[in-house]
């Protein structure tokens, strides 16, 4: 009867299992060391994902953003971001999170008759005032630093 | 054995991985339901999304998708914590949880990445029964569990980087560094040949406890890390005694014993039909949760459980499939009770209404507001 007796502990790994386990462990540990270091090579300093830089809460900067688009007839039109996307995305755009800014500008370009889209971000930290412009059909938005912050 | 091999493959008290796995799974289930689900309404708004990884480019997760993934992950996690976990289920939980946060930058909570790393470690944990982890005698069962050591080292690496970035900013870094050293040393405390570490290691728990209780942190991170620290740093006899008390009912479960009457075939067919009935009925509880995607999520959990049980379902004369179905039932019921007793569902609809109002979407705002009023505390 297999029963209420104590079951044996898991078997001790043999040489082959140890080697395989060791290789997996080494890869997993090396990856964990390398991924946070990629932060140092990132274009976007606001992208702190997978780095453990914000494991403890730090003050988020206060940022504001204004968007406008230029039509084929040369008219400039203000865009109210809050009407288009969720407020959390607006916060990302205002902080100049590169991937979100690019995606937002590209989405605006999908509308008919839009020639270019521009964003003006103002932050109370190192980011200062920055402008992002995308000519529709272009690959990457152009970033201009207007003033440095604090 | 070389020193490095001794470090990774040395003995640990089996009660530690047993309790650690279950504790994290329970916390993860309630964390997804109480803290992540209320934020679900922002998914899919304006057909705009940016994911963590480029392979999701062009995919806009809807609120229903996000909540469905969270319901699936949470129910499966709790069901695995309630009854002996299965490796396939842990793989599915890891995939579901990682999909949940990685499909959108809207979830950029750092400890969610950490939980994904932990779940990867859990996949390689031994899937111990309560009887294997906690003997009836005072002798503590020990064994080689490299994945547990990897879990500790993963935690140590996180603290190392917290300390390193703090140092780079010119801030105090000694506390996270003490946590890092503590986790590297403490995984060796159960080895008989190291009495000095066994004596000193439990005292190092002061570092993570101080760090997580004194520094403001997001969500349930302090809860996870305090619980983990207590299980990892406590002396093995304390863990053993705690685990024995906690698992007393589980160790007495009717599982392996032979049937008192009736043949094995008859018993196997009873178990088969009862299990199938349970698998169909359990997800039905989610109909009363009234959140988009949850019904699909719970139904997928039942399918996952079917996959986990596999051949066991119709070949075994044992009660094991029934306990698995009961644990699924427990998971679905816990989701329903949690949603009914907490403000999570109300928060979901309230936030959806506020956002729809901001965007001038009156129809959606009205729908959200109606539901919010229905579930207002």
Describe this entry's structure for a reader:
The complex is a heterodimer of chains A (150) and B (377). Chain A has helices spanning 15-37, 81-84, 87-94, 98-109, and strands at 63-71, 76-79, 114-123, 129-135, 142-147. By secondary structure, chain A is an alpha+beta fold. A five-stranded antiparallel beta sheet of chain A has the order 2-1-3-4-5, covered by helices on one side. Chain A is elongated. Chain B has a domain at 260-342. Chain B has 377 residues and is mainly α. Chain B has a two-stranded antiparallel sheet. Chain B has helices at residues 3-9, 15-36, 63-82, 87-102, 110-123, 130-133, 146-168, 174-186, 195-200, 206-214, 221-233, 236-246, 248-251, 264-281, 294-309, 312-315, 320-341, 344-359, 362-374; strands at 11-13, 142-144. Chain B contains 19 helices and two strands. Chain B starts with a helix and ends with a helix. In chain B, 67% of the residues lie in helices and 2% in strands. The chains are: A alpha+beta (150), B mainly alpha (377). At the A-B interface, helix 1, helix 2, helix 3 and helix 4 of A face helix 1, helix 5, strand 2, helix 7 and helix 18 of B.
Largest sheet of chain B: 2 strands, antiparallel
Strand neighbour order, sheet with most strands of chain A: 2-1-3-4-5
Rg on CA atoms of chain A, Å: 25 Å
Helix segment tally of chain A:
4
Number of strands of chain B: 2
The most extensive interface between chains reads: A-B, 46 and 56 residues
Instruction: Work out the number of β strands of chain A.
Output: 5
Strand content of chain B: under 5%
Oligomer classification: heterodimer
- Overall, the morphology of chain B is globular
Percent helix among the residues of chain A?
A: 25-40%
Terminal-residue CA separation of chain A: 75 Å
The span between the termini of chain B is 61 Å
Mean pLDDT of chain B: 89
């Amino acid at each position: 009867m297999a029963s209420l007796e104590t079951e044996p502990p898991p078997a001790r790994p043999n040489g082959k299992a140890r080697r395989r386990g060791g290789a997996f462990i080494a890869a997993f540990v090396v990856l964990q060391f390398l991924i946070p270091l990629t932060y140092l090579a990132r274009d976007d300093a606001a992208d702190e994902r997978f780095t453990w830089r914000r494991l403890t809460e730090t003050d988020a900067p206060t940022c504001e953003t204004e968007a406008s688009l230029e039509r084929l007839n040369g008219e400039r039109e203000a865009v109210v971001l809050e009407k288009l996307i969720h407020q959390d995305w607006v916060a990302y755009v205002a902080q100049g999170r590169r991937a979100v800014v690019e995606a937002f500008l590209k989405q605006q370009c999908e509308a008919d008759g839009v020639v270019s889209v521009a964003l003006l971000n103002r932050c109370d930290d190192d980011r200062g005032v920055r402008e992002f412009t995308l000519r529709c059909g272009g690959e990457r938005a152009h970033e201009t630093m207007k003033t440095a912050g604090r | 054995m070389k020193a490095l091999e001794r470090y990774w493959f040395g003995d640990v008290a089996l009660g530690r991985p047993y309790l650690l796995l279950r504790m994290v799974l329970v916390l993860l289930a309630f964390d997804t339901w109480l803290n992540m689900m209320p934020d679900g309404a922002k998914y899919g708004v304006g057909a705009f999304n940016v994911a963590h990884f480029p392979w999701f480019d062009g995919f806009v997760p809807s609120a229903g998708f996000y909540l469905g993934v969270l319901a699936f992950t949470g129910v499966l996690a709790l069901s695995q914590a309630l009854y002996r976990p299965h490796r396939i289920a842990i793989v599915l939980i890891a995939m579901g949880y990682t999909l949940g946060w990685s499909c959108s930058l809207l979830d950029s909570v750092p400890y969610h990445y950490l939980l994904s790393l932990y779940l990867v470690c859990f996949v390689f944990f031994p899937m111990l029964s309560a009887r294997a982890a906690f003997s009836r005698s005072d002798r503590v069962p020990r064994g080689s569990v490299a994945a547990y050591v990897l879990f500790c080292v993963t935690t140590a690496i996180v603290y190392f980087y917290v300390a390193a970035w703090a140092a780079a900013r010119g801030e105090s870094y000694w506390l996270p560094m003490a946590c890092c050293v503590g986790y590297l040393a403490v995984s060796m405390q159960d080895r008989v040949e190291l009495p000095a570490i066994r004596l000193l290691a439990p005292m190092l728990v002061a570092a993570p406890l101080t760090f997580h209780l004194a520094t403001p942190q997001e969500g349930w991170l302090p809860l996870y890390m305090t619980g983990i620290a207590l299980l990892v740093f406590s002396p093995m006899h304390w863990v053993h005694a705690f685990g024995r008390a906690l698992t007393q009912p589980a160790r007495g479960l009717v599982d392996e014993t032979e049937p008192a009457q009736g043949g094995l075939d008859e018993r196997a067919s009873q178990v088969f039909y009862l299990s199938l009935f349970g698998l169909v009925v359990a997800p039905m509880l989610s109909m009363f949760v009234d959140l988009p995607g949850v019904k699909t999520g719970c139904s997928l959990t039942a399918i996952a459980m079917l996959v986990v049980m596999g051949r066991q379902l119709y070949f075994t004369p044992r009660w094991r499939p029934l306990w698995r179905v009961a644990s699924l039932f427990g998971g679905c019921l816990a989701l329903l009770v949690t949603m009914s007793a907490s403000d999570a569902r109300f928060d979901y609809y309230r936030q959806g209404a506020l956002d729809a109002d901001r965007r001038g979407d009156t129809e959606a705002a009205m729908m959200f507001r109606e539901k919010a009023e229905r579930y207002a505390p």
